[in-house]
Amino acid sequence: MSDTTPDPAADPLGYVREAIWPPLPTAFGVWLGDLVHRARAGADPDLELAVPDAVLDTGVPVPLSGTTPDGTTTITLARALTLFHADHLLFPDDPEHSADPVVIYEPGVALTLANTADMITVSGAHDPATVSELAERLTGGQWDYRLVAAVRIDQEGRLTGGLNTLLAIVLANRPAPALTYDLTPDPADHPLTWRGPADRGTLEHR
After folding, report:
1. Which domain holds residue 59?
2. Same domain? 87 vs 145
3. For a FRET experiment, which of 15, 84, 108, 201 has its CA 20 to 30 Å from that of 1?
């Protein structure tokens, strides 16, 4: 977290507005404040929580959530904090966990990044069956960023790993988190080798 990024524990509203792309409605900042309070109180990371109605009313999908038989949308505390890149608040003394570089990818961004992979990477990694399976997990609320291939970007800004992960996000047309290892000189900037937003069919699932 840079010096200019609001601290999610101190300013959840500011963190949601400034640190998460694309910007999320204010309701997400209020929700993050509640999640931080629970984390500080030592709540169980696997505690199942109902996603607030105010968050659901925004129409923004909530990856990693599930639905109970009575129709309630729920998510564990750990997964909810993961969505805000703030799960380290649950494990402040776990360096390995706090170092997890999690990024939430919107479908358009996932497609743009997938399009930077060269043909050698595509031919060696693209697995339509895996893409379909992961997309079903995402639409069914069973997506777990720890169980899918990490996204890896080389120093030229080209994708070298995680192609199926990104294509599953495109196929499901829902945002989702993924571990990301970016070796570009300045990860805050889009690499110059990135292609602009492309037609959805450029790397379509076959």
Report:
1. 12-94
2. no
3. 108
Look at residue 30 and tell me if it is in a domain.
yes
26 pLDDT above the threshold of 60: yes
Residues 27 and 44 in one domain: yes
Write down the pTM of the prediction: 0.54
Pick the closest to residue 80 from 41, 33, 42 (CA basis): 33
**Number of domains present in the structure of the chain:** 2
Residue 48 pLDDT class (50, 70, 90 cuts): very high
pLDDT, the chain, mean: 81
